């Protein structure tokens, strides 16, 4: 429901508001959207129809619930610059078509930013500032205000009374299932907004970064691309090509996180990465609560 | 009088033996274990360590599974009262999934000491067809009062 509405809004919105410029249905200025906001070239790729002739290269490994059907998307190749579609791929609806909860995405993004944060701001209290043990002048008779030490907070050069105290940690952990749900929602929203591309392998012909930039611009993918592969060993060419590029990055699938997905506009997954992610993310829907931490061995961890 | 005397003498014997280290404190090692052959003499080279992996199965069968098993097939309610979901989902605009332990997701809540509500979770599809006061974002439905048994029976009857 959300996917269809988002797709409809994205495609039809420029058509809806185009007439406002001619003055027929004059909208208030804060609702008027400029015509170059929606990239028309990106709107040319419709989702795969059910009667497409291309073969389905991968079906879902896990059981799909009876009342849902797998989502389908195209499989492309990076070998050539022009966009030749190799086939279709089935994506599990419980990973790639979950209802979009932006509040969970927000929570996970904030957690990712803050749980590693250690603030080293530290100020000295009046007892830590050097000096100030002696009463500066006598209590009565000098004509001056009464003071007990030269380092009290009202003095210049004195200690700070309520300042930051030492390294403070902002560590907290969100429940595992919330973090997993955040990943699923991020993947689903990327697919729904047409920013997800599936690729068969990451083999490119040249280690030239310009080739990748040409490919991205030709296919109208977007500004920044996050490429995800399943294993740790990535092909040499793609590593060299993306090393110097700032907006195109390659990561293994274990490194996938909500912040990176939100930071990069486009997400490119390989078929193995799709299989790995589905396996790992769907396990959380059917697992027991941990008897002991999952780092220790169980019989059937994913 | 004799009983406490025997008791005291047994305790004294135990303490005497413990002080002389007559008890065998080493654990009883069965014959089929990792055999270690370490040479005692200084000049010889170490013969080596033999490792056998046949005993690993005794530990492996103790490691628990991490996934909830699929319940066995029942026609109708099982002896405990649990009813499996129907094979085909009912033809309604909404769908209520089972929890990970294959139960109906209806829960009671007690807030403020006396406020009873019933929560129906995991509702998918058009939940406005179910009830008016519904939370579409979180896919839940809250009803005032404790109706969990009735709701569970009604949902099971429907075939969810």
TrEMBL record, chain A:
Molecular function (Gene Ontology), one example: structural constituent of ribosome
Region (Disordered): 126-148
Localization, UniProt: Mitochondrion
Keywords: Mitochondrion, Ribonucleoprotein, Ribosomal protein
One Pfam assignment: Ribosomal_L4
Extent of Basic residues compositional bias: 135-148
InterPro entries per UniProt: Ribosomal_uL4 (IPR002136), Ribosomal_uL4-like (IPR013005), Ribosomal_uL4_dom_sf (IPR023574)
GO biological process, one term: translation
GO-annotated cellular components: mitochondrial inner membrane; ribonucleoprotein complex; ribosome
PANTHER family with a match to the protein in the record: 50S RIBOSOMAL PROTEIN L4, LARGE RIBOSOMAL SUBUNIT PROTEIN UL4M
Similarity section: Belongs to the universal ribosomal protein uL4 family.
UniProt protein name: Large ribosomal subunit protein uL4m
From TrEMBL, chain B:
Main location as per UniProt: mitochondrion
One Gene Ontology cellular component annotation held by this UniProt entry: mitochondrial large ribosomal subunit
InterPro entries from the UniProt entry: Ribosomal_mL49 (IPR007740)
Molecular function in Gene Ontology: structural constituent of ribosome
Gene Ontology biological process terms, A to Z: translation
Record-given protein name: Large ribosomal subunit protein mL49
Family: Belongs to the mitochondrion-specific ribosomal protein mL49 family.
UniProtKB keywords: Mitochondrion, Ribonucleoprotein, Ribosomal protein
One family name in Pfam for this protein: Img2
Subcellular location: Mitochondrion
